[in-house]
Amino acid sequence: MGESPSDVIVLDHVSKRYGDFVAVHDANFSIATGEFFAMLGPSGCGKTTTLKMIAGFEQPSAGRVMLDGIDVSDVPPYKRNVNTVFQQYALFPHMSVFDNVAFGPRSKKLDESKIKASVMEMLEIVRLSEFAKRKPSQLSGGQQQRVALARALVNYPSALLLDEPLAALDLKLREAMQIELKRIQREVGISFIFVTHDQGEALTMSDRIAVMSQGHVEQIGTPQDIYRSPASLFVAGFIGSANLLPGTVQSHDGADAVVALKAGSTIRVAGQASAHAIGEHVSVMLRPERLRPSEQVDPHGQSLQGTLTDLVFQGATARMIVRLADGTELTCLADSSARMPQTSVGATMNVSWDSDGGYILAGWPDRAGSNSTDVDHIESTL
């Protein structure tokens, strides 16, 4: 992988071993200056180990970690121009908000007038200037997190590393802080490298995402690319909700692939013929929001029929579980304000999708159908 002058961090074929166990396999990617970059994956996938190698808390077993074009693989953390924010904010409880943020500049023996100006500028960015004299115990969890961010950013490091910093917050505050973090990152223009196992956080905040599994980087791309065009069954199932239907490519019809599903139906997937050979074992991915209830079978092979087993009103959407003849379950999210067929649990239901609603992936999934209806399966992926 070639280096670019715009890259702040480069992982050059980096691996990390602990005895016979390989925690990170050949990580080889770069992060641009000013980019919000997420490393996403389940527990034990290697994302935190990768972050620690960037920070200097771990040294790579192979490869190089480059920071601003310099090899820092053996450089200790305090000599790297990066800062880290952890789940526990580690604020000094006896110090005011101002003094917490000023700790870094003061350790560099800067002029006090310059320190005051830079601290107040950073507190303004994180919207805490009126709390400068308060102690951390007088702040909410979200405010404490913003103090930790200001303290990490006040010296303007080359990159800020964040290890699941939102995990301790409740749901509504976590969602609000996702937007706030992105705003702060844009305002300061510093690269943020964010580790999380929460797909929603990664999709909401990131310019690019690296999805990791068992120490391997499965795919790197924009949130849109990874969600709409996953590179593997793991990525498809881990990013959001997905219906994964195993089958075999039966034929090609122009640019379309005709897939005979193991569930018994034959469906058409637009624009996928060139990527998958006849006879290949594949899985057709159908996102729940791309499916819609239909009163009749689609004549073009873009619908399935089953039995409605669950119908839950969720405000803007209605969540439906449709069981196919072989027992495979599909999740469908429909606009609850739109016209829907009059139906009830136990009734026969058709679900259809637009021509671009399906996507083919190589191989068969461990579990056919929806990835959001089986508690044990969901728990095993976290």
Short description:
With 382 residues, this protein is of the alpha+beta class. The protein contains 9 helices and 21 strands. 41% of the residues are buried.
Give a verbal description of the structure:
- 24% of the residues lie in helices and 34% in strands.
- With 382 residues, it is α+β, with helices and mostly antiparallel strands.
- It folds into 2 domains: 7-228, P-loop containing nucleotide triphosphate hydrolases (Rossmann fold, 3-Layer(aba) Sandwich); 242-380, OB fold (Dihydrolipoamide Acetyltransferase, E2P), CATH 2.40.50.
- The strands form 4 sheets. The protein has a 6-stranded mixed sheet with strand order 6-7-8-3-9-10, sandwiched between helices.
- A hairpin with a 5-residue loop joins strand 17 (317-323) and strand 18.
- The mean pLDDT is 90.
Highlighted features:
382 residues, alpha+beta, Rossmann fold, OB fold (Dihydrolipoamide Acetyltransferase, E2P), 6-stranded antiparallel beta sheet, elongated
